[in-house]
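Input.
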Amino acid sequence: MKKLKLFGVAAALIAATGCHESAKEESMSNISQETVQKTITAILEQKTGADPVLVEKGVAQAAALWQAEDGSEKEFADFALANYASGPEDRKILFDKLSNALEILYGTSNQVSVRLQSPLHLAGSELTEIDYILGAFNPYSHLSDDLFANKTAFITILNFPFYTLEEKNRLGKDWNRLEWAYARMGDQFTTRVPARINARYAKALSDCENYIASYNIMMGRLLTEDGRRLFPEDMRLLSHWNLRDELKSNYADIPDAREKQEMIYQVMLRIIDQSIPADVVDNPEYDWAPYSNKTYRNGQEISLKPEGAARYAHILEVFQVEREIDRYSPQLPTGIARNFEKGMEVSAQDIEKLFTRLLSSEQVGHVAGLIRKRLGRELRPYDIWYDGFKSRSAMPEDELTAMTQKKYPDTDAFAADMPRMLRDLGFPKDEARYIADRIVVENARGSGHAWGAQGRWEPARLRTRIGRKGMDYKGYNIAVHEFGHNVEQTLDLYDIDYYMLSGVPNTAFTEALAFIFQKRDLQLLGFDQKIDDNTTLDIFWGAYEIMGVALVDMRTWQWLYENPQATAEQLRDAVIGIAKEVWNQYYEPVLGTHDSPLLAVYSHMINAPMYLPNYPFGHIIEYQLESHLAQAESKAEFASELRRIYTLGRLTPQIWMQQAVGSEVSVEPLLQAVEEIL
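Output.
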C-alpha cells in the first residue's frame, strides 16, 4: 500500500501560490532583464566574496516570480540587495531560521490535515456530507501565497536558488551535507500557483480517495452461474488491494481455490470496463453474478445500472486541475514532468527504459515456465500475482489468520508489539522503543496506509484495518508493510542532521523499506523465514507485474495530454485500449489471453495519480538493498546498516543509491541473479 500523500497540503508545501483571479497577471513578472543584470552587479560589488554563480541564479529566479503587486523594479533591486546574505556565516544563520520556520509551518499543517481527515480514514460512524467537506478543506492553502506576500519566499529564493535535476546529479556528487540541505531549501519555492487552484486540486484528490476508500465488493453476495456462493457471507474486500490479496491466498491448497480466482478475475474485469452495477458496490442488499452480470434482490432478478465511467471521471478531474497548474510551471510545464523530474527526480524516459528492459527480458519467460510447472497448468492473466515464491503460500491462510487475530485483537495490541518486532529485526532495545514510541497505530476505514510526521514533535501514523474478530492475516501483512514506512518516516525525520534533508529521494525508496519489512512478516510471527533464492524470484515477479501496471498509468497520462478535451467515456475506452496494448506486448507471450485489460485494475490510478511507477522502481531498489543487507553478519549489523542508509535523507535517487550500496539504480543485478538461479 502506498505511503499516503498529504491531500490539500502537498501543493501548499511545495508550490508557491498567488491570490488574484487573473491568471495572466499572476504568471507575469514585471522585472526586466536589464534590472536583473544591474541587481546582480550591485550585489557582487557590495557583498564581497559572494559566489557569482549563486547570485546570478538567485536574482534571476526571484525576478521570474516577482509580480507588480510585489513592488516596482526599483523596489525589487533594493529588496534583493538588502536581503542577500553577506557571507557564509550569515547564510547559515538564515538557513537555520528558515528551516525552523518551515518545520513549524509544515508540521502544524500536517497535523491539521491528519485531524480533519480522520473521519474519512479511520473506522467509525457512518460518514456524512460534512465529513467530506471538512476532509477536503485546507486552511493552509494560502500558505505559500502568504510567504510570497511577506517576502519570505523571495528571501529564500535569493539566497538558496533552485538546482535542476541535471545539476543536482552532476554537482551533488561533490556536495557536503550542508550544501545538499541548501539545495533542498532551494526546492521550496519554484512556482507560483494560485491558491484557488491548489484548493481545487486538494478537493479532486480527496474525492478520488473517498471513492476508492469505499469501493468494497461484498464477496458473500457473489454467485456462480449455477447459484453457488464461494466466499464467506461476511467477506467484504476493498478493490483492488483486498481482491488481489484474496486471489493470492488461493494459491494455497484450499477448497474451490481456482474457481475463486477466476471469479475475482471476472469481478476485476467488470470494474475496469465499468459494467459492474453501481449499486452492488459496498452494498449487501443485492446478489451479483459477475459472469452474466445479473443482479438479484431477495431471490428475484432485478436490473441495476452499470457504473458507466465514474472511475475514469475522477482521473479526468485531476487531469483538468493539472492542466491549470501547467500555466504556472514554465520549467516543468506538464503534470508528467512535475511528477518525474521534480517528484521522483528521474525522467519518465529513464523510468520507462528501466521497466521495458526487465519486461522484455528472457528471464521473464524462464520464471513463467517455472510457475507453469509448479501450478501444473497453463497460466492465466491473474498469475501476475502468483504467490508461490513466498513460504507462507504453502500455509493455509485461515491458520495464519487465527494466529494474527489472537495476537492482535485491536490496534493497541499491534502497537504494544512493535518494539518486540524491531528487536527481532536486530534493533537494540532502547532504539526499538525510541522508534515505536513515535508511531501511532489506528484502525483504518479502508485497507490502511502510512502517514508520516512533518514536525519533530508529532508521530507517524500506521492505519490498518482490524475487524471485530481481530487482525486477519491479510491485514497483518499490510500492517507490516506500513510499519516499514513508519520506521523510515521516523528515522529520516527525527535522526536527520538537517530538516531540509528529511525524507527519502522519492516514494519508491520508502516503498523499498516497506517491502523489506513485509517480506519478513512470518519471521516477525516467529517462523523461520529465510531471504533466499525464492525471495529474489518473488521480487522479480512482483516487479514484472507492477511494471506493466505503471506503464499503463504513465501512458494514460500521455494520452490525456494528447487528448485534453476527452470525456470520461473516451478516457475509459482509451485506458482499456492502453492496458490491452501493454498486455499483448509484454504479458500475452508468457501468460496468454489476448487483449486482457487486467493491468488497469489498480486503484492507485484513481486516488494517486502517476504514483504507480514508484512501486516497480521500489522493487528495483529493494533488490539492491536486500543484496547489500544480505552481507550483514548479524541481525544487529542488519539493523545498523538499515539505519545508516535511511538517514542519508533526501538526496537524488542515483546519488542516494551510490552512497547506500555503492551503485546506481539498475535492473541488471536482479536480472543477473535470476539468470543464475534458473
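The CA atoms of residues 144 and 154 lie 11 Å apart.
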